[in-house]
Design brief:
Elements: H1 16-19, E1 24-25, E2 32-37, H2 42-45, H3 48-56, E3 60-67, H4 75-89, E4 95-99, H5 108-125, E5 129-133, H6 140-160, E6 169-173, E7 183-186, H7 191-198, H8 202-205, H9 210-220, E8 232-235, H10 240-258
Parallel strand pairs: 1-7, 2-3, 2-5, 3-4, 5-6
Antiparallel strand pairs: 7-8
Helix pairs in contact: 4-7, 5-6, 6-10
Length: about 260
């Protein structure tokens, strides 16, 4: 299609660099970080490299495990595995909220209780960054955690009467499903630490080699930054409209399922 000047107005296909980063960066600067894990091990498999980098930078890194993990093993065993992994990475001892495994999406009441707890935790810890799974995950607990964090981050901003630029920010990580990243974090310097932390979960590695899957994912994430690093963690950094979309789509989907 052309206008009178002869200039073409054909729609242009987006360049690769618009869709995925072509540079590997460090973690987002912060002094207080919260890592939200739906199950004992997601904090390591999903965000272990970034969490370790934050700890090495001197940040306070708190960890919350939402469910008891009983759907895939003994809760007490899984809790101890998370404690060992967090200690190895230099993180704070995890807090265990003991929601039922696969129960985060059970009802509106559970969701709102979870949102309140997350909001209070972020306010009390003055967390600048909140790591949690992305809304593109396949496990229902992961998707429910994404929805809860989206509302908690929004509610903290409203409570403090601050803008998005003043924080806190939701930093979404990937575990069971890839996301469309805004940032690729070079984790080469802490990859050995992440490997050791993943090895702290023998109860889960007995099911399947999750550590190999995650290593492959982190290796793959260097695809567009070849030469800059060999391993990266991919992050999605939602804006205000994204938060509202995650909340709205979850709620609309729940109403549809209940109809």
């Amino acid at each position: 299609m052309q206008d009178g000047s002869g200039a073409s107005h054909e729609p242009r296909i987006q360049e690769e660099r618009v869709l995925v980063p072509y540079s590997a960066e460090g973690v987002i600067p912060a002094t207080s970080v919260l890592v939200v894990a739906p199950h004992p091990d997601d904090e390591v498999f999903g965000a272990g490299g970034c969490a370790r980098l934050h700890a090495l930078s001197g940040a306070q890194v708190d960890v919350v495990i939402l469910t008891d993990g009983s759907g895939a093993g003994d809760s007490a065993v899984r809790m101890q595995e998370s404690r060992a992994a967090c200690a190895l990475l230099g993180l704070g001892q995890p807090s265990f909220w003991a929601y039922a495994d696969r129960g985060l999406a059970e009802s509106d009441e559970v969701m709102q209780r979870l949102v309140r707890q997350l909001t209070q935790t972020v306010l009390a810890g003055s967390h600048e960054l909140v790591y949690a799974p992305s809304p593109w995950e396949v496990h229902p607990d992961h998707r429910a955690a994404a929805r809860a964090v989206a509302q908690a981050v929004r509610d903290v901003r409203l409570e403090r009467r601050i803008t998005a630029s003043e924080g806190p920010r939701w930093v979404a990580y990937e575990v069971g499903s890839p996301l469309w990243p805004h940032r690729l974090v070079n984790i080469d310097s802490v990859m050995d630490d992440k490997r050791k932390a993943m090895a702290c979960f023998p109860s889960q590695l007995a099911f399947q080699p999750y550590d190999e899957h995650i290593l492959a994912l982190n290796r793959y994430r260097s695809y567009t930054v070849s030469g800059q690093c060999r391993h990266a963690e991919a992050l999605w950094l939602p804006g205000d409209q994204d938060l509202e979309a995650v909340i709205r789509e979850w709620d609309e989907g729940r109403r549809h399922r209940s109809a």
